[in-house]
Specification:
heterodimer; A: 117 residues; mainly beta; four-stranded antiparallel sheet; 0% helix; 51% strand; globular; B: 115 residues
């Protein structure tokens, strides 16, 4: 079974500063994908970034980067130059990439980020 | 292009009534998923459809829950004899082969309140 742990229930960050959101995972699957989603107060889940377990380089998407440490089973999200619009709930998720296991996402409990002006 | 759409956005019902929630996936996406988000349980997988294959129903919490996908596109999640613990936001997602890791894109959700 897969498990995702996000140990930070909430955090404040100053506008324009960087913030790191922790995510650790547990799986016995040899091939898996890690995802980060943002959920603003409006409720929609917005895909941010993806990292495959066999990817050699850490994923980056604009101001988002993923600090992937496979041996430590961690996939922390780094948001650089925080903006007020980054205030939201952030979820780490994973899925098994072997088709026979299905495509469902397993989510962590989320981290609420509040950006202060 | 258009994203995943869901209707209604909000639904208030009385305990014991049946409800139907609708999801319209991104055009061309072959996979469709239903999740539930509640305060106590976080985000939980409910059911997954892939093309014409038999759906993965492993996440459905009870036999009061069912879902169908007609014509490989629109899906309806039905909850019979609703209970107060069914109150949650029901999220639909879809994915296509071109997305990295078959990335799932979510709709805005349906907030269900059972009185």
């Amino acid at each position: 079974a897969q498990k995702i742990t996000q140990t930070q229930p909430g955090m404040f960050v100053q506008e324009k500063e960087a913030v790191t959101l922790d995510c650790t995972y547990d799986t016995s699957d040899p091939s898996y994908g890690l995802f980060w989603y943002k959920q603003p107060s409006s409720g929609e889940m917005i895909f941010l970034i993806y990292q495959g377990s066999y990817d050699q380089q850490n994923a980056t998407e604009g101001r988002y980067s993923l600090n992937f440490q496979k041996a430590r089973k961690s996939a922390n999200l780094v948001i650089s130059a925080s903006q007020l619009g980054d205030s939201a709930m952030y979820f780490c998720a994973m899925r098994d990439l072997i088709k026979a296991a299905g495509n469902k996402l397993t989510f962590g409990g989320g981290t609420r980020v509040l950006v202060k002006p | 292009g258009a994203g995943v759409s869901q209707s209604p956005s909000n639904k208030v019902t009385e305990k014991g009534k049946d409800v139907e929630l609708r999801c319209d996936p991104i055009s061309g996406h072959t996979a469709l998923y239903w999740y539930r988000q509640s305060l106590g349980q976080g985000l939980e997988f409910l059911i997954y459809f892939q093309g014409n294959s038999a759906p993965d129903k492993s996440g459905l919490p009870s036999d009061r829950f069912s879902a169908e996908r007609t014509g490989g596109s629109v899906s309806t999640l039905t909850i019979q004899r609703t209970q107060q613990e069914d109150s949650a936001v029901y999220l639909c997602a879809s994915s296509g082969r071109s997305g990295a890791g078959d990335t799932q894109y979510f709709g805005p959700g349906t907030r269900l309140t059972v009185l």
